[in-house]
Batch of 2 targets.
Target 1
Amino acid sequence: MQTDIKNNYCGITIKSNYIYIVSILKIAKLGHPVLLKKSTEISKFSSDALKKIVYDMSETMIDYNGIGLAAPQVHLSKRIIIFRNPDIDEEHKIQITPLINPVFEPIGDEKEDDWEGCLSIPGMQGLVSRYKKIKYYGYDLEGKKITNEAQGLHAKVVQHEIDHLDGVLYTSRLSNKNAFGFEKEIVDFWKNEQNRK
Ligand SMILES: [Zn+2]
């Protein structure tokens, strides 16, 4: 059967000979070896298989309320990330950017500490040091090159997700080894403390 499904948050159109079913994927949690592996590059673009992976990753990220997701987090050791662009108003439309074989380079060497969480380390947060401004590259689902600059949360999400492709979790980038814990404790003992200063 020919089917033509338009995904209004990804901008992906899938035309295929099978009926497309969206799946919410299982997220790999801290301790699973897939999170520590270096992922391999994608060489074939425009395939229904690639589109389905990204489509399912998007649905999974939305379901878990994430702002970014990397393929190893859904047990797939491939260089694919997706993220919401935090600079875009998402009141009416959630815009998700898929990026295949992504790389980034810092613009300047200025770094900034900020609290991060990860869908693979649920319920916890850590204070992580990341580049403030970056340039990133990658490919879209059709293999078209994407180049962009980012700063603030946008830059942090991209760095966090690309780290996943190299088997690096934010827990190995803590700006202070004690700045890691359960969300409630972090809010009670770190964030409120910071606000008082
Ligand atoms: Zn993560």
Note: The two ends are 63 Å apart (CA to CA).
Target 2
Amino acid sequence: MADIVETAARKVFERYDVDGDGLVTADEYRKVVTELEGSAITESEARELIDSLDTNGDGRMSFEEFWAAMNR
Ligand SMILES: [Ca+2]
Ligand SMILES: [Ca+2]
């Protein structure tokens, strides 16, 4: 069961990871939210979101960080 949820989460994550390098930058996040959800967010809003999930402080969101946030 948990595996199914994790697979689904990974699919969501991969949608945000536009260049497929396994990390979601604020830029990628903003682009995807704007294109898929049709709601524009500002660069600083995207940065804030990524920063709030970025636990190792590299400025990008890894799947592990995304997953940890979902299980919080
Ligand atoms: Ca990426
Ligand atoms: Ca990170």
Note: The CA atoms of residues 30 and 63 lie 17 Å apart.
